[in-house]
Specification:
This protein is mostly helical and about 425 residues long. The protein has 19 helices and six strands. The strands form three sheets. The protein has a two-stranded antiparallel ribbon. A two-stranded antiparallel ribbon has the order 3-4. α11 runs antiparallel to α12. It starts with a helix and ends in a 10-residue tail after the last helix. The relative contact order is 0.10. Pathway: Lipid metabolism; Phospholipid metabolism; CDP-diacylglycerol biosynthesis; CDP-diacylglycerol from sn-glycerol 3-phosphate: step 3/3. Keywords: Lipid biosynthesis, Lipid metabolism, Membrane, Nucleotidyltransferase, Phospholipid biosynthesis, Phospholipid metabolism, Transferase, Transmembrane, Transmembrane helix. It is a multi-pass membrane protein.
C-alpha cells in the first residue's frame, strides 16, 4: 500500500492545484527574471514600473515590426526560413517547461525523443509541401522522386521508431508521468508544427494572405494594449487579469479599419497578390501573374441607410478588402483566445512567460500564441471560399503520366469540350 501511494504521488495522480507540487517532484519553475537591456533600465530609471514597462514594450515592438518589414522585403524564401525558426523556438520553450519538471526524476530520453518527434513531423509536413509545390523538380531528380514516392511510408517508419523508443524508455513508478509528457509533446507538435505548416501554405497562395492576417493580429495586440492601458477599467477574463473590455472593443474597431487600409494598399502590387510559384528554369521563386478578380477594383453600391451619412452612392474597392473584414474580425474576436489559452497554460505551471527571449514581451511563444490560431483560420478560409483548381499543377501531373494515360485524358477532355460546344464536332476536329 505504501509503495502504491508513493507511486501515485510520483506519477502526479492528484486532483487539486494545492497538491500539484507532488506531480512534479516538489520542484517549482524558476521565476522569470528581468532581462531588460541595461541601456533601457538606465534611461527609464525615473519612471514608475507601469510606464517603464510601457516604454520597453513600445520600443521592442517597433524593433520587431522593423524586423518584420525587412524579412518581407527579403522575399518568400526568407519568410519560410523565419517561420521554421519561430516554430523550433516555440517548441523549445514549451518543451523546456516540461523538461524542467521531468528532469528531476532523471528519466531517460525525454528531451531526445521530443526533438526526434519534431524532426519526424517536420519531415512529413515539409515533404508533402515539397511534393505538392515543387512537383517538376522532384520528378526531375531521381533521389527526390524515390523519396517522394515512398514519403509517407518513410514518415510512418520514422514515427514508429520513436514510438518504440518511448516504450523502451518507460521506467517503473513513473509510467503515468511519462505518458503525461508523451501526450504533452504530441499536443505541442499539433499546435506548433501543424500551424506553421499552414502558414507556409498560406504564403504560397500569395504574400498578401501571409502579411495581412499576421499584421491584423499584431495590430489587434498593440491597439488592445493601448486602449486597455489608457482607458481600461472593466476586466475581460480571469485568465488574463490585465485584459479589459475597453481594450478588447478598441482593438476590434482599430483592427478592422487597419485591415481595410492595408488590404487596399497591398492589393495594388503584384508582388503581394500573385501566388508564390517555383520556376524550374531558373530554380527560384516567382511572384508574377495577371491579378485575379480579387485584386481588381470594383464598384459597389453603398446601402441607402448609409448614403446620407457618408454622402456617396458608390465606392470603389478591391474584393479582397471584403475578405479582409472577415480576417480582421477573426483576429480581433477569436484570435485573442489563443492568448487566453497560453495564459491558462502558464498559470497551470505558475510562470509569467514562456521564456525571456524578448524583454518586456516574454518568449517567442508569448508573441505568437494568437498567430497559430489565425493561421488555421486563414487556411480553412482560403480552402472554403477562395482556392480553386490549379491548372499548372494539373498540367505538371499530366505530363508525368504514361503516354497511354495522357492520350486517354486528352480524348476524354476533347469529348467533353465538344459536348459543351466549345470545340467543333469530333469529325471536324
Amino acid at each position: 500500500l505504501q509503495e502504491s501511494e508513493s507511486e501515485n504521488k510520483l506519477d502526479g495522480e492528484t486532483a487539486s492545484d494545492s497538491e500539484s507540487k507532488s506531480d512534479f517532484g516538489g520542484s517549482s519553475p524558476v521565476p522569470t527574471s528581468d532581462d531588460t537591456p541595461e541601456v533601457l533600465n538606465r534611461a527609464l530609471s525615473n519612471l514608475s514600473s507601469r510606464w517603464k514597462n510601457w516604454w520597453v514594450r513600445g520600443i521592442l515592438t517597433l524593433a520587431m515590426i522593423t524586423f518584420f518589414f525587412i524579412i518581407i522585403y527579403l522575399g518568400p524564401m526568407v519568410l519560410m526560413t523565419i517561420v521554421m525558426c519561430v516554430q523550433i523556438k516555440c517548441f523549445h520553450e514549451i518543451i523546456t517547461i516540461g523538461y524542467n519538471v521531468y528532469h528531476s526524476y532523471d528519466l531517460p530520453w525525454f528531451r531526445t525523443l521530443s526533438w526526434y518527434f519534431l524532426l519526424c513531423v517536420n519531415y512529413f509536413f515539409y515533404g508533402e509541401t515539397v511534393t505538392d509545390y515543387f512537383f517538376t523538380l522532384v520528378q526531375r531528380e531521381e533521389p527526390l522522386r524515390i523519396l517522394s514516392k515512398y514519403h509517407r511510408f518513410i514518415s510512418f517508419a520514422l514515427y514508429l521508431t520513436g514510438f518504440c523508443m518511448f516504450v523502451l524508455s518507460l521506467v517503473k513508478k513513473h509510467y503515468r508521468l511519462q505518458f503525461y509528457m508523451f501526450g504533452r509533446t504530441h499536443v505541442t507538435l499539433l499546435i506548433v508544427v501543424t500551424q506553421s505548416h499552414l502558414i507556409i501554405h498560406n504564403l504560397f497562395e500569395g504574400m498578401i494572405w501571409f502579411i495581412v492576417p499576421i499584421s491584423c493580429v499584431i495590430c489587434n495586440d498593440i491597439m488592445a494594449y493601448m486602449f486597455g492601458f489608457f482607458f481600461g477599467r472593466t476586466p475581460l477574463i480571469k485568465l488574463s487579469p490585465k485584459k479589459t473590455w475597453e481594450g478588447f472593443i478598441g482593438g476590434f474597431f482599430s483592427t478592422v479599419l487597419f485591415g481595410l487600409l492595408l488590404s487596399y494598399v497591398m492589393s495594388g502590387y503584384r508582388c503581394f497578390t500573385c501566388p508564390v510559384e517555383f520556376n524550374n528554369d531558373t530554380n527560384s521563386f516567382t511572384v508574377d501573374c495577371e491579378p485575379s478578380e480579387l485584386f481588381q477594383l470594383q464598384e459597389y453600391n453603398i446601402p441607402v441607410v448609409l448614403q446620407s451619412v457618408v454622402g456617396w452612392k458608390t465606392v470603389r474597392m478591391y474584393p479582397f478588402q471584403i475578405h479582409s473584414i472577415a480576417l480582421s474580425t477573426f483576429a480581433s474576436l477569436i484570435g485573442p483566445f489563443g492568448g487566453f489559452f497560453a495564459s491558462g497554460f502558464k498559470r497551470a505551471f505558475k510562470i509569467k512567460d514562456f521564456a525571456n527571449t524578448i524583454p518586456g514581451h516574454g518568449g517567442i511563444m508569448d508573441r505568437f500564441d494568437c498567430q497559430y490560431l489565425m493561421a488555421t483560420f486563414v487556411n480553412v478560409y482560403i480552402a472554403s471560399f477562395i482556392r480553386g483548381p490549379n491548372p499548372s499543377k494539373l498540367i505538371q501531373q499530366f505530363l508525368t503520366l504514361r503516354p497511354d494515360q495522357q492520350l486517354h485524358i486528352f480524348n476524354t477532355l476533347k469529348a467533353h469540350l465538344v459536348d459543351r460546344g466549345i470545340l467543333g464536332s469530333l469529325e471536324d476536329a
